[in-house]
Amino acid sequence: MFRTTQHMLFFIFVSQAVGCFAFIVNDVRMNSIKTSHSTSLLAQNNCDAHSLSPLESSVSHSGEFGRRSLFGKTFGSTVSSAAIVNYFVNAAEAKTEKAAVTKPEVVAIIGGGGRSGMDVATTLARNGVQAVTLTRTGSDPFKIIKLPESTKANLKHYAPPVDVRDQASVDNAIKEIGATSIVFAASASKRGGTAFEIDQDGAANAAMVAKKYGTSLIVISSLAIDRPDSRSFKVTNSIGGNFDKIMDAKRIGEDKVREIMGKGKGRYVIIRPGPLITGKTTLGAMDLEINQGDTVGGGLSRDELAGAVLGALQSGVAGVTVEVYRRSTHTKLQPEFAAFSGNEFSADTYSGLFSKCKKDV
Fold it and tell me: Residues near 211 by Cβ (< 8 Å), separated by ≥ 6?
């Protein structure tokens, strides 16, 4: 008889309300009791008509749940036929209201088999974030590596191979994992693809998937991307082989990410680390400096880079491009640049490093 539960509830409500309306009419006609007393009885009779439970909507990919309020208003202390009519209108026009529910952070690391990707994975897992590694071959980079149980509990691997050159491959992985964030740590390699295939097109594919599913995206790029006249750019760009023109590819990849995600507005962070140096941090975030403008940089260790990725996730910052390096290595990228850009910032936590970042324009 009823196509949906909502139709049935609405029918019940109408039936009860019509009965209330008839009661009022009869009460006026018979004049058997006082108006104030009849109002009290009528309000009591209607108490069940507006106490129906809300209905839950379906679960979306983003992890939010919706609740539909069928009857959002209640009768006032004085009930009249006009109030009942208004109530019918309000009930029929009730809107869906969504209440945000926090979903556990699940970070998919594209390029999780590389050294930087592995450091990102262990840093996230060690800090209570579920990290899922994605690799070109499908092999688990941590299969034979001993880690503390507390870290292993948050570290997972997605077994099927993921080819960043194929957008569908990335899409399937992110969908199956249910990732809330993506870290793009992939780059050109001897067996994995050229710079233009990975650093350019691969980054764009990750952005397309992130945009589709509403996930945040962190891209690990490189210092001096905007400085083709700098020594750093020229040397890195001329390595040759699959790495040939890698700085050009990364620059185009960055531009594609901003365009796809929404420059300065989308949920992306581009991190430009300087040269990766040996050794590990001794002071954590306090060793690092964030900069913007690509005029100043320096080197840092892989665990410091991983800490910066963690900080970007924890801070919730979006729509920014930053350079990150160890403060003790601070240097200008070209001779004509000022020693300090004016955008330097340090903090005692990784998330604090991003507290004053300026949006991309």
Answer: 260, 261, 266
> Quick one: tokens of 39?
């109002």
What is the Cα–Cα distance from 81 to 22, expressed in whole angstroms? 10
Distance CA 306, CA 123 (A): 6
Q: Give 187-213 pLDDT, tens digit per residue.
A: 999 999 999 999 999 999 999 999 999
With cut-offs at 50, 70 and 90, classify the pLDDT of residue 102: low
Q: Which residue has the tokens 């509403």?
A: 214
Rounded CA-CA distance 313/306 in Å is 11
Provide the pairing of β-strand 331-332 with 155-157.
unpaired
Mean pLDDT of the chain: 80
How much is the pTM? 0.73
Q: Is beta strand 331-332 parallel, antiparallel or unpaired with respect to 296-297?
A: antiparallel
Mean pLDDT of 167-171: 98
Q: Tokens for 161, please give them.
A: 């191979």
Q: What is the dihedral of CA 335, 187, 349, 102, to 10 degrees?
A: 140
Which string of DSSP letters, residue by residue, matches 199-262? IIIIHHHHHHHHHHHT-EEEEE--TTTT-TTSHHHHHHHT--GGGTTHHHHHHHHHHHHHHHH-
Kindly state the tokens that stand for 31: 């004049």
Closest by CA to 250, choosing from 203, 209, 291, is 203
Predicted confidence at residue 220, as pLDDT, reads 98
CA 89 – CA 74 distance, rounded (Å) = 12
Burial 51-61 (b: 16+ CB within 10 A, else e): eeeeeeeeeee
Residue 156, SS3? strand
| Identity of the amino acid at 108 | A
d(CA 62, CA 69): 21
User: What gap in Å lies between CA 274 and CA 253, rounded to an integer?
Assistant: 18
Alpha-carbon distance of 358 to 74, in angstroms, equals 47
| CA separation for the pair 232, 194 (Å, rounded) | 20
